[in-house]
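Researcher: Here's a chain I'd like modeled. Treat it as a single chain, no partners, no ligands.
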Amino acid sequence: MILGVNKMLWLGTNKGLYAYDPVSNKAENIDLVVGVRNNLFTRGASKDANGFLYFGTRNGFYRFHPNKLLAKEKTQPLFTDLKIDGVSYRESKKRKLLDNDISSTSEIELNYNENTFSIEYKNLNYDTEDVAFYETSMTKSGENENWILTYDTSRSWDNLSEGTYTFKVRNRNTSKISELKVVISPPWWRNELAYGIYVIFFILGIYFLVNITTQKAVKEQKKAQEEKFDKLRFKFFLNIAHEIRTPLTLIKGGVERLKEGNAVNKEYTKELGRIYANTERLSRLVNEVLDLKKIERTAIALNLKPLNLKWFLESIIEIFNIRENQVNILLKTPKEPVWITTDKQLLESIVYNLISNAIKYSNKDAEIVISLFTPNDDQISIQVKDNGIGIKKEEQQLVFERLYQSSEHLKTGTGLGLAIVKQYVKLLKGTIDLESELNKGSVFTVTFPYKKQHLELSNTEDQTTISRKKTSPTLLIVDDEAELRTFIKEIFEQEYTILEAENGEEGLKLAKKHLPSLIISDMMMPVMNGIEFCNKIRQDISISHIPIIFLTAKTGDEAEIEGLSSGADAFFNKPFNQNVLKSQVHALIENRKKLIKKYDYSINEKVSVLASNTVDKDFLERFEIILEKKHEHSDLSIEELASEMAVSVSSFYGKIKSITGSSPVEFVRTYRLKKAAQLLKTTTLNVTEISEKCGFGTQKYFSNSFKKHFGITPLEYRKND
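Model: Modeled as a single isolated chain. C-alpha cells:
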C-alpha cells in the first residue's frame, strides 16, 4: 500500500490493484495484465521522485504513473470494424452497408439474411504491453441488459432474429460506454408492408365471403321460390290433366259412335280415324302426367323377385317388333342366363321408355342396339343405343327433369318419360348415364347393383322342384304326397317341363309365376285344398285359361261333380291308369293347339273361340272389341293394348301367349291378316288400301306377311273361291 498523487491510496492485493479515494470512500479495481506477470501482488511497493509507483508480484513488478493510468481508464472503446459472415463491411461486394466509417456511425441496418455478424472495438490509448478488460452487452429492445466480461476486442452473433438491438462496450469499472444501434430487418413477407397487404387481403376476403354468402342465400331463396312456383305450376298442370280426361272421354265416345253408325258418309271415315287416333294420343299424354304424380307422391313398395334379364329383354324386343317395318332392333346379351333380383314391373317401364324414346327420335330403317353386359363383378348394365338426332351436351343432364324438352326435340314428347325412368332407376338403387352427340345418336346406360346368381330351377321360397326343358310344355303337379308327385313326374318328365308344389297355396304362386300349360292337382290337401285352388285359378284373369286335371281319392259322382263345377277340365280317381292320364294331358294340350290353328286360318272365327271358361271368354271378347277399334292404327303398341285391358304389359303378354300360343305382336298381326283376308273376299278395295285399312305400315310389308301366313299372295287369295 502506498500514497500516490491526489491523495489516492494504492493497494496491491492478491485480487488485483485497487485505487482508494479516502474522501469519497470509494475503491476502484484496476486490472492489469503485463507479459507473464499477473495481478497477484506481494507486500513490496515504492514510489520515485517523478511520482511513478512500483508494485511487486511473484513474477515481477508493475511500474506506472497514477495520473496516466487513471486517465487511460477513463477513455471509452472505439468501434473499428463490422464483419458480415466473416467479410468486413469495407470489402463487401454485395451492397454498401455504411455510408461513413463505423467509428463515426451510431446505427447500422442489416437485412434478415445478414444476421450472422461480428463487431470489433479497441481503446485508442491502449498500451501495447497491457491488455484491458472490457464489458459488453447486446440487448434487444424491451429486454434487460446482460453485461459480459471479456478481454476480446470483438463480439460475434449467429442467426440473430429480426429486431432492434443496442450493442454497448466499456472498459471495466468505468462509466464511459460506446453504443451502436443494430437494426435487423424482417424478411419481406413479415415486414410492415406485407402485414398491411395481408390485412387488405383479409378485409377483401371477408368482403368477398360475405358477398358470396349473401349471393348464395339470395340464389337459394330464389331457387326455393322457383321450386315453390314450379310445384304450383305442376299442381295446376295436374288439375288441368284431370279436367282434360272428361272431355277426352266424351270426344272419344262420340267418335266411336259416329264410326260405328251409318249416318256418317264413308269419305269422312278416314278423318274420324285420325281424330280418334289423336284423341288416344292425348289420353296417353294425360296418363303420363298422372303416372308421374303417382311416383312423386306415393311410396312405392318394391316387389323384388329373381328375374332372368336375358329372357326379359328378349320378350320386350319381341313386343316392339310390331314396328319391325320402321326400325331394326338388335339385342346383344351373354350366352348364359343373367339373373338379378329386381322389381319386374319397374324395370319393364324403364326399358320400355328407353326403347320408345330411341324409336321416336330415330329415322325409319334406323338401327337400335339393346345390350346387356357386366361392366364389373358387382354391376349389371342395360344399354340402349340409337343413331338418331342426338342431344346437345349442355342439355343432356336436363332431359331427366320433368317437363323438360331438348331444343332438338320440340316436335314430339312431353318431357315426362325420362323423368319417370330416373325415378324408377333411383328406386331400384341404380344409376342412369347418357352419352349423346347431335346427328349421331344417343346411348342410355342403366346400371344396377349385381350379385352373380346360379339359379337352378329349385326355389326354397316356393318349395318346388323344377325340371326345365326350354321348348317343352310345362306341367304343374300339386299334391301333398311327395311320393305321388315323383311318380307323376316320372310319367311326364321326358316330354314336359315339371313344376312341383305340396299344396294349393304354393301351387297358386307357381302358376302365377310360370304360367304352366296344364295343372294336375289333388283335391284333398292341407293349407289350401284342390277345390279352393281351382276356384282361385279360374277367378284370376292372368291364369284362368290354364287347364286343370283333378286327382282324388274321393269316389262317387258327387266328388266328380264338385271337381268339374269348380272349373276342372278332367277328373281322375286314385288309383288311376297312367296311360289314360297321359293321353288326357296330351289331348288337352293338343286340342288347344288345334283350336289355335283353326282360329289362325279361319277368317270368320272370333277370338273368343279360344276361351275355355267364362273368365277367359269375357277377357277375349273385350280384347276383340279393342282390336276391332284399333287394328287400323299402324302405330298400335302393346303398351296401349295392355292399358286398354287394364293389366300390366307383362301380365298381358303372358295371358295372350298362354291362350293363343302366340306373342301379342304375332297375334295382332294374325288378327290384321284375317281382317285383310275378309276385305279381299268381301270388298273391291285394292291391296294398298287394304294394307292401310288393316294397320300395315307399307304395302310391301303387308304382302310379305300375308304370303307368309296364308301361303299365297293377297291377289291369289282374292282369286281363289
